[in-house]
Design a protein that fits this description.
This protein is mainly alpha-helical. The chain has one domain. It is 52% helix and 11% strand. It has 6 helices and 3 strands, in the order βαααββααα. The chain has a 3-stranded antiparallel β-sheet with strand order 1-3-2. A hairpin with a 2-residue loop joins strand 2 and strand 3. Helix 2 runs antiparallel to helix 6. The N and C termini lie far apart (40 Å).
Length: 141
Amino acid sequence: MSFTIQLSGLQSTINRLKKTGDDIAKEVDAEFAAGAEKISTSAKRLCPVDTGLLRSSISASRVSFLEFEIVAQKDYAAYVEFGTKSNVTIPKGLEAYAKRFQRGDGTGQGVRAQPYFFPSVYAYQPVIVKNIIKLLREKRK
């Protein structure tokens, strides 16, 4: 399970930074790296544990300059995150994705959701944005 996290309000700035490659861009890249690691660490902390394989499959890695990927590499990761019941509450914007994993028959049968990944994303995404905006404002002075 891997997702792209779009940081709204920063995309045009990020696109400009990719072209410059200067020190500010490197500092923003470092903020992204720190944020990706925090999300990964939080997801591991929140991840339910049976054998520990799902938890150990969660990682953050660099895709390219200013781009990081956070993944849970087990094929059942999304089933744990969203559950398989047809009456599970799904985070806004993820309904279509989560539907792929719901197997319930409408009676609530199935595995209950045990969210660990998206709560971590939602907790740290605003922090990453705030830190980058603060960094950019400081550098503009």
